[in-house]
Design goal:
The protein is an alpha/beta fold and 229 residues long. Helices cover 38% and strands 11% of the residues. Strands 1-3-2-4-6-5 form a 6-stranded mixed sheet, sandwiched between helices.
Length: 229
């Protein structure tokens, strides 16, 4: 019998709300990238992944067209995923440093990974209405995860998405309003701690805006917060 969280993931995978995204991810799955032409693409909304009892939730932006949209797992099969899972492994949250496919045996401990948008958007740029369509899934998901205390937002869109979640669920936000930045920490009235990080996207990592040291420093911070909990 499926848990409520598993039922939610099934609804996410079956979702067809966004008229721009549904044909786009299917088209990408048919045409494929040349280097992945022998791969069977997922081509559907991508479910979340991780430990349902996690104390840490990682919130990203969206699956990559030839990453999660190909492999069927969030942050899997692209350079951003290499950064995320490699760092999770170094800090004891992941079973292996590599995440290549949804059936590769990877598992997470004390971490749950989700996204503001479950479908890969063209040019990695979601529309406002697409984020609005997807947000109820995140609201339900965070309410079904009972142990989490820390939310690590990867990028400004993820950060702002969680702020909107707080507003929609009646959580009292500090004044002035939390502002996104790398390494920022906000303890919120709903008992959670919001941590911000630059997204490990290619445009950030290849330009030096986000370095491995900077990314690891954020996870050092998360570890320290867990130890204080």
């Amino acid at each position: 019998m499926m848990t409520h969280l598993e039922q939610l993931q099934k609804r996410i995978m079956d979702c067809t709300k966004c008229c721009r995204l549904v044909p786009y991810i299917r088209d990408v799955a048919i045409k494929k990238r040349r280097m992945y032409r022998k791969c069977e693409y997922w081509g559907k909304p991508v479910p979340s992944f991780g430990d349902p009892k996690a104390r840490v939730v990682i919130l990203g932006l969206a699956p990559a067209a030839h990453g999660g949209n190909r492999t069927g797992r969030v942050f899997t099969g692209d350079l951003s995923g290499d950064w995320v899972y490699g760092t999770l492994y170094r800090y004891g949250f992941a079973a292996t440093p590599n995440s290549t496919h949804r059936n590769d045996g990877q598992s997470l401990n004390d971490v749950y990974i989700t996204a503001a948008l479950r479908c890969a958007p063209p040019s990695n740029k979601p529309l406002r209405e697409e984020l609005i369509n997807c947000r109820p899934y995140l609201v339900q998901e965070l309410q079904l995860l009972h142990n989490w205390k820390i939310l690590l937002a990867l990028g400004k869109i993820a950060f702002d998405t969680y702020i909107r979640f707080c507003k929609e669920t009646g959580a009292i936000l500090p004044s002035p309003m939390p502002k996104f930045g790398h390494g920022v920490v906000y303890k919120l009235a709903n008992g959670t701690t919001l941590v911000g990080s630059y997204h490990p996207s290619r445009q950030n990592t290849q330009t030096g805006r986000l370095t491995k040291e900077m990314f690891e420093n954020v996870f050092n911070l998360v570890k320290m917060l867990l130890e204080k909990d």
